[in-house]
Amino acid sequence: MATKTTRNVSGKGSVRPLGSIKHNTGNDRIPKLPSFTKTVEKSKMENVGIHGNAMNVPPPKVREDIKPKTLSAKSDSSSSTKSVENMVDKKELQEAKAREKDLLKKIAELQKIIEELKEQITEKDQTISSLENKLKEQEQTYKDKLDEEKQLHSNTKNSLESLRKELEASKEENKRIAKRNEELLNKFKNEMDEKLKDITELKDKELALRDEKLNRLKKQMADALKGNSWERQQQLEELTKELARLQEECDTLRMKLKSFKSKGSCSNCSQLSLKNEELQKDNKEKEKLIKDLKGLLTKFQTQLKQQEQLMLLVEDSKGLKSTKLK
Which ranges are annotated Low complexity under compositional bias (predicted)? Predict the structure, then answer.
């Protein structure tokens, strides 16, 4: 245990308590205190290990009790011993004062660090409180958004379910309509096949009847043309000769009329004029008759050609039909 001692310092008579002072025996070393920078860094790394006004300092070493020295009987040895003790006490006192000064300086620095750390702790507490408030606000905001998203998800799910049901109903309706349309199409196809069959049969009958009529007509016209062609040719030749003769008479009468006109009028002029007009009229009628006969012959020939072409077409259609049926 440390003991309190009173000693005379520098030969003065005043007595001063020095507290716990360890005598330096020469073998002990003065402990080194850590530097200020290292102390601050260590305090930051340990998340501020100093709390309040308290300060953690290493405990002092246990001091061994100093045994009182026995004074010898000799006065010389006594005086020399006292002188040595006074020197040792003086040196220890100076060292103690220096250590005390250093310790006070370090204590002031540590107190300053403590105040700064307190301010930092206060700022950090305020920051933490602000962050906690923001965190609560964000948490509430995200919670509201989550509830809103859940509600939207529920609405979307309900809408999808409704659409799925409508889609299933539409599919069933489409199947029903497709089946009905297929039945109607088959029915219509059967009806059209029956109608086409009836029309084909009717067409075949009509074509057969038409072929028969055309063949009969063609035969009749061929017989008629064959029997009357020579007679008609004779008539045309006679009419042509008659027309030429009448033309000559008309020319002769015109010449006579011109000669009579140049010589003067006579009693027969009016009669000749009337006769000339009648001849011209007969000539025109005969020309018209010849023209009509020629037109009739041309018409008969054209009809025969058309009938032959029609017969060829009918024969071709029958050939195509028979090919399709095969």
Answer: 69-83
